[in-house]
Amino acid sequence: MKILIFEYITGGGFNKQELPDSLKSEGILMLQALLDNFSVIAGIELVVMLDWRMTGTINMKGINTVVISPEDTVSDEFIRSARQCDAVWPIAPEFDFILQTLCQTVESLGKRVLASPATAVAIAGNKFKTYQHLSRNNIPAIPTRLLEDVFYSQGEWMIKPVDGAGCADSYLITGQEDFAAIARQLDQKDRFIIQPHIQGEKISLSCLFKQGQGWLLCANLQKFNIINKQYHLDGIVVNHHYGLSLYQDVIDKVAKALPDLWGYAGIDLIVTADQIGVLEINPRLTTSFAGIYAALGINVAELVLRLLEGEPVINPVCNREIIIKIKQNNHAM
Fold first, then answer.
1. Closest by CA position to 114, among listed 46, 50, 15
2. In order of start, what are the domains of the chain with their CATH numbers?
3. Could you tell me whether strands 171-173 and 157-161 are parallel, antiparallel, or unpaired per DSSP bridges?
4. Which of 53, 185, 238, 277 is deepest in the core (most CB within 10 A)?
5. Which residue from 214, 297, 286, 301 is spatially nearest to 26, judged by alpha carbons?
6. Interval 228-277: pLDDT, tens
């Protein structure tokens, strides 16, 4: 099988502008981990798109590399490379419909997407649509409304883009003045949501999905700092042990509610003493993926390929916590 891997940030998505350091560092982590997974799988030929500034940063030994220069049109190069492959594994942020468009493009070419299809991304990639969909299916989710539909009421709130990646452009609101200031500076209020700021553990689930079934790989603890009333991801404890059976129940419900989810996906939760609330669903590789092999000895790429023929067989060969440190920034994928 010949597979195109396109990690948007390191693969040329920003070839005509400066690379955002925060997204770049996490993109490198995910891409290198995925290449490491594939390096021990027989019968696979990889093609990897790579931003011209990334050459020498990632170990590409023995891999067909398509270097994207500032003069290239990345969408044209993506289509050209995808046509030469049997399958495509896209890794991209949801904002500006980037991930959804990539999936639609691969599907239109008649190639296999080694991730969720565009139909699933259209819901999971939009935090408001995700909340509506989960609520209709009686799945506890953090209450979410469009910013343009609300006035400030007492309490602490989070304002964030409806399709943002992680903490990018998210704001903690602690009073009327905060709300008014943020509301004034945001031009497109219909592109932002507001949620109650709930104190609790921020847990991300690394999962596999196929046709209404879901499998938990591990639960991860996300550690944040709040700087100038914005969350900044500081690190992730991959394979954090806590409430695994409860998490599997959430995964089962999400899988049934979104049967189009396929392959690896992440579910972000806020866990309190009283409840587990779904914050968002990431229909793609997440930063936590980069620590799974070291934590459990599980080859996620191999499991995803097994989904093409049947169900995954998940057999951890070790069981330890792995800490991924994140450069202080406004992003987390």
1. 46
2. 2-114 (3.40.50.11770), 124-139+200-325 (3.30.470.20), 145-196 (no CATH)
3. antiparallel
4. 238
5. 286
6. 777 878 899 999 987 788 899 999 999 999 999 999 999 999 999 999 99
